[in-house]
Design brief:
By secondary structure, the protein is mainly beta. Helix content is 9%, strand content 55%. The protein has two domains: 36-168, Quinohemoprotein amine dehydrogenase alpha subunit, domain 2 (Lipocalin, Beta Barrel), CATH 2.40.128.120; 173-271. The protein is built from one helix and 18 strands.
Length: 278
């Protein structure tokens, strides 16, 4: 009996040591950093003809691991430079800024949530003009997009449910042309060159050729595919809000609203890629 007992005991001890060794030798996979420029699009179950664009400069939370900052799975966005809402007509691409929900409470805009694994579940809430929505989604394997559903919280003044998608967006760049209402009231043929730097600041060079012959430069922050640029035109301070529409079913375009008079913003024009040259 002793001969049988000793090997069995040794085998049990060895198995325990191996199991402990296995657990300690397999490091936990680090969470990805999904902070950066994102565009979220919500499509309502009750009104799929329009959708809400949520333009986000997503901030990733950090934790110190062995002296190195690593993502902790928490994400957030708050304030005008980190989150912006738009309502977009799916057939025409027409844009209105600020979202479609009625003002509630403090009227704030924000986002906060978490994920726990590579490509894993992504749960968060967002607040549109004070109205809160819950989102349950799944990140893609490369953590560059997600798909999920959203619903308003109980008692919301902006009751809605639907689907939501999210995509990491590239920096705004390129040359676009079209008719644009200038701050002096004329509508000119313009060529606009867009360039976004590493700090998410957009520089916009505008050259107007007809009926005016002038050029001016504007700059300002980018949030996802939305931006707000400011500059000087004929000695006067001016500003435009804008949105880049990348939807495959529509022509890629930049949509402009003149916001110089914040109380009376006005549509200024849409710029598209220049025609190909032979």
């Amino acid at each position: 009996m002793r001969k049988l007992f000793v090997p069995a005991l040794l085998i049990g001890v060895a198995a325990t040591l191996l199991a402990c060794s296995g657990r300690s030798s397999i490091p936990q996979s680090p969470l990805p950093n999904i902070g950066g420029a994102w565009e979220f699009k919500t499509v309502s179950n009750s009104n799929p003809a329009t959708y809400t664009g949520i333009e986000v400069a997503l901030k990733a939370g950090q934790v110190l691991v062995n002296g190195v900052e690593q993502p902790n799975g928490q994400v957030s966005a708050t304030g005008a430079t980190q989150i912006a809402f738009l309502t977009i007509d799916a057939s025409t691409g027409a844009v209105s800024f600020g979202g479609s929900c009625a003002l509630t409470g403090d009227g704030s805009y924000s986002m906060a949530g978490s994920f726990a694994a590579l490509g894993g579940p992504f749960n968060f809430t967002y607040t549109e003009r004070g109205n809160v929505f819950n989102v349950t989604a799944t990140l893609s394997g490369d953590n560059q997009s997600f798909l999920g559903t959203y619903s308003s919280v109980a008692g919301s003044n902006c009751s809605d449910t639907g689907t939501i998608t999210g995509t990491v967006v590239p920096k705004l760049s390129g040359t676009y042309v079209g008719q644009l209402a200038l701050p002096d009231g004329t509508t000119d043929s313009v060529t606009a060159t867009f360039s976004e730097d590493s700090s998410s600041t957009l520089t916009l060079n505008l050259v107007a050729t007809s009926p005016d012959n002038t050029n001016f430069t504007m700059s300002g922050p980018v949030t996802g595919n939305a931006f707000l640029v400011q500059g000087t035109f004929q000695g006067q301070a001016v500003s435009y809000a804008g949105y880049f529409e990348p939807t495959p079913s529509l022509v890629p375009s930049f949509y402009f609203v003149n916001t110089t008079n914040a109380a009376q913003p006005s549509y200024a024009g849409t710029l598209v890629p220049p025609p190909p040259t032979n």
